[in-house]
Amino acid sequence: MAKIGKYCCFFCPQSDFNEKSLDDVCPTCSRTYGFPLTHAPSSIRPYSILKPLSRGFYGATYVAERQGPLRTKHVLKVIPVEMYKYFKKDFEAECGKHSEVAADADHVVGITDLFTAEVKFGDVSLPCHVAVLQHLDGFLLGDYLRGEQPLSAATAAQVAADLFHMKAELERHLINHNDLHADNIIVEKLSKGMQRQGAMDPGVRAVAIDLGSLSPDRRSGGQYRGDLHWIASHIQAMVDQLQKNLDSTIDLDSRVMHALQLIVQLIAPPIENQRTPSAEDFIRLIESEYFRTAEPWRPWREQLRLRTFGSSYNAQTLDAWHVPRLLVDPEGAWLARISTPGPLVVTGMRGCGKTLLLRALQFHARAARHNEATDTDVLQRLRQDNYVGLFVSAQRLLDVENRD
Q1: 39 within 8 A of 31, measured Cβ to Cβ
Q2: What single-letter DSSP state applies at residue 126?
Q3: Least confident of 164-178, 270-284, 356-370
Q4: What is the per-residue pLDDT for 224?
Q5: Where are the alpha helices (DSSP H) in 173-312?
Q6: Where would I find the H helices in 23-109?
């Protein structure tokens, strides 16, 4: 089945951002949108084309080998000159910004050269801009999300964390990616000598491979999806893939899925309606859920560690068993008042502590040991509650795909 995405015809540029199949035919020239892949050039200047890689809205990418004694591999990003003229884009400025961002980033592909050349696709030639990118072994994130590559809980957790690392690297340069779809990200397979010590999956790294839509402006809403919502959709798709094998799911997979699902709930709403935690908070949440599985799970006995002033300032990323250490409620007056039968409505301004108060009713918050309390004291408290508190954010009810 041909991939679905937003594609512009290589030969007939138009401001049409509707989704299409690569097999769909351009109404003007009758060539398919996948024509640059099915009729890939055999060579471009000193590079021999080994295979087509993917199509984006503006251009196509190919795995290439530089002719010469070393025969090094690269990825060539090819965009028709007329395409960028039509959309009033500056290729050299775009590549310059890409190089600046990639210079100090671990999750952005490197760019080594650019030039313009006549490129032959089948029976037609076009003057094209060509960017020479670092070659990375691996598969597109889209291959995992479509089920074409097997996905483990460890890989899903690592990719999710890397997506937040990637966003943080872009934010350091005060820019947004604005086109962070799954085929613009490669899950690099690292050789043994390059594996990441202490990582959840040491053998992979998620890397952005197309920065053609970089901008200080955040494009979100309407036909556009912002970086954070792209990340939410990718994490949800990974959770969906993991859930397809629920019958064989182990404890690790379940906890990772729970942590990832919580993140999706937090970042699904429109940006203006959320108080988004930092990338560090999200990464900590993923890593703590993953690495805790090696020990007996008694989270209510864990110590609260706030490494920086801003750590876990968002109550929805704070583990429930830490809430009693932060909540000031003399003689349990508030808990006694809210723990009554029937529906209750808690109102207040944003950031006043409504979520923190509600999370104090969760089972794991009630199971936490206070000061000199014994296990017997904790069990007695739970018996007296006569309820089991489960916290579910209303954001869980939102349709992630339609919240951009």
Answers
A1: no
A2: E
A3: 270-284
A4: 63
A5: 227-243, 251-267, 279-291
A6: 35-38, 81-86, 91-102
